[in-house]
Amino acid sequence: MLCFKIIIVGDTNVGKSCLLLQFTDLRFKNTHDTTIGIGFGSREIRVMDQNVNLHIWDTAGQESFRSLTRSFYRGAIGGILVFDVTSRQSFQGLVQWYEKIQSYACDEIELIIVGNKTDLEEQRQVSQKEGMQFAKQYNFEYFETSAKTGLNVNQVFENLSCKILQKVNSGEIDPCKNYGIQLSKKAKLAKQECKIQNTKQDKQKNNTCC
């Protein structure tokens, strides 16, 4: 089984931790403590007829903690850039977060733009059209979600995983070389056994008389 490291980034209070909790635990907390440093969750999903384990890191949005999270960009093979549809400031902050990902993450990272808190439609400051235009500018997929109701939350992670897996299957990403993709213990053992079998077969061929 493949393990993908996914990071969730965005300004504070856009709902990053709530998205993570909704995806991993299928629940929502009305009162949620601000993430200090790094939050973590994991969940196994099935995409393209393959089981994938997602290791998801929720990076703190506060400026004072951004320097502490730089090392966590490294090794991420998937990223979710989140803004709050009721906050234009968080939408404008996406550019800065994208620049940080470019600086610290690997070149192969797949990204998705997410406009969260659609359950607060009456307070919306950023239209769906604006979000889609921004995503299109960078050639990213765009989703609008509600961590409260669960709207499109699974779809975000499934779509991102599918894009990464497509690259793995096409050979664009080598899971054995890329730091952001790890093999499970079972898969590692199977790979080691395969190498041993191949080595034995090679020796047998070399010892065979012509």
Give the tally of structural domains.
Answer: 1
Return the CATH topology: Rossmann fold
What value does the Rg take, in angstroms?
20 Å
- Main sheet makeup: 7 strands, mixed
Strand content: 15-25%
- Tally of helical runs: 7
Order of helices and strands: EHEEHEHHEHEHEH
Q: What overall form do the CA principal axes indicate? A: globular
Quick take:
This is Chromosome undetermined scaffold_132, whole genome shotgun sequence. The protein has helices at 16-25, 70-73, 88-92, 94-104, 128-137, 153-170, 185-207; strands spanning 2-9, 38-47, 50-59, 78-84, 110-116, 141-144, 181-183. With 210 residues, the protein is of the alpha/beta class.
Report what the structure shows.
The chain has a single domain, classed as P-loop containing nucleotide triphosphate hydrolases (Rossmann fold, 3-Layer(aba) Sandwich). Helices cover 39% and strands 23% of the residues. A hairpin with a 2-residue loop joins strand 2 and strand 3. The protein starts with a strand and ends with a helix. 37% of the residues are buried. Keywords: GTP-binding, Lipoprotein, Nucleotide-binding. GO terms for molecular function: GTP binding; GTPase activity. Belongs to the small GTPase superfamily. Rab family. This is Chromosome undetermined scaffold_132, whole genome shotgun sequence.
